[in-house]
What we know:
Shape: globular
Strand content: 5-15%
Strand order of the largest sheet: 1-4-3-5
Number of strands: 6
Structural class: alpha+beta
Amino acid sequence: MIEDSRIAPLPGQPVPYGSQGVLFSDAVGQPDEELGYRGPAACKAAGITYRQLDYWARTGLVEPGVRNAHGSGTQRLYSFRDILVLKVVKRLLDTGVSLQQIRSAVEHLRERGVQDLAQITLMSDGASVYECTSADEVVDLVQGGQGVFGIAVGRVWREVEGTLAELPSESARDEELAAAMHPENELSRRRARKIS
């Protein structure tokens, strides 16, 4: 479960700008929510295996937000946000956080808007995951002996953005439009997918 840090930033106060302030002042672009990435691209951008991706989708940890697979021949399409969460999950796993704690953290992250995610730093002591939205909260956790490592989601955002810029994307509407414009080719497309 993500626990909010004990110290909340005062409204209207600027975030201290220093080495820790950088964690919270990342300006990020708005991702195109119509674009999706197939499994292999999502795996490459998140640094995970296809087996992990498939398992996490089937168990509901991180499901594709653009298009889920429906029967044979359909492809899952993962949104930018999905891939960002996949990469965060991978980092949490790499640091020893339990899958149960990660599931709670992912549930919490799902409630956030995409832009809000870039302003979060996740801190963990290996057992619990804490959400920090200011440098003061990070310092409080570290001084209290609770934070052992942190993941600045804004930095992960930029890494995913850079990787995805080099990978193929598609719109969920592309396949629907092609099928609507050429319904006679739908059967041919399905057969071709089964053969290859």
